[in-house]
Design a protein that fits this description.
Elements: H1 3-13, E1 88-97, E2 100-101, E3 111-117, E4 120-125, E5 128-133, E6 142-145, E7 153-161, E8 164-169, E9 176-181, E10 184-189, E11 192-200
Antiparallel strand pairs: 1-2, 1-3, 1-11, 3-4, 4-5, 6-7, 7-8, 8-9, 9-10, 10-11
């Protein structure tokens, strides 16, 4: 990408749920490395909760400063076919740019929470809440605000492609990708690739 293109997109893409500050291996819940992810076997007497039963979440005006409660914690709907299991509370532990480790990168230490239910996915990080249907449509993608100012409207199309969660902001020539590599989450962002460790379940609310 040419320098002026990078400058054009960097600000807007800076928070597609997807941002520093604070996707390819499909795994079932029984394979979860933390062993604490929710079960989708409701069992007798337990009411099923589907993705469509839960209101769409959005970034509060001005963004959040205290972590909001999880959006999809009550959901019992299984993930759609082809969806990698990205659920969890994740923290950036390594960053590379152009194949070179960047220990002082601004993304280091950042935390992001990823929730999934059916074809729905919510990324909460850096003051934003980006809630989407991962169905390849503009209508059901992210309709929220950018992290850079918590004001600029953004629309992002989300898909699952060969075990990778792919985000394509409408009108910008970039992609943001997340996938599992063993117990880690790999996050391919504009200009760098980060590795994240799972530090908690997707229904956990960080204290900081």
């Amino acid at each position: 990408m040419r320098p002026f293109h990078r400058a054009l997109v960097a600000g807007t893409v800076a928070a597609l749920g997807l941002v520093p500050a604070c996707g390819a291996e499909e795994e079932s819940m029984s394979q979860d490395p933390m062993g604490d992810a929710p079960s989708f076997d409701s069992g007798p007497g337990v009411e099923s909760v589907w993705a469509s039963d839960i209101p769409v979440a959005t970034t509060p005006p001005g963004g959040w400063t205290t972590w909001p409660e999880p959006v999809l914690a009550a959901c019992t709907e299984p993930l759609v076919e082809g969806a990698p299991d990205l659920r969890g509370l994740w923290q950036v532990v390594g960053v590379e740019a152009d194949g070179v480790a960047q220990p002082d990168h601004r993304a280091m230490g950042g935390v992001q929470r990823i929730e999934q239910c059916g074809d729905r996915l919510v990324v909460t990080a850096a003051g934003i809440v980006h809630d989407m249907r991962v169905d390849g449509t503009e209508a059901n993608g992210v309709h929220d605000v950018a992290e850079m100012d918590k004001t600029t409207p953004i629309t992002v199309v989300a898909t699952y492609e060969d075990g990778v969660h792919v985000l394509r902001p409408v009108g910008l020539p970039v992609e943001v990708r997340r996938w599992r590599d063993g117990g880690q989450l790999v996050w391919e962002y504009l200009g760098f690739t980060a590795r994240l460790d799972r530090i908690g379940p997707p229904d956990e609310t960080p204290t900081t």
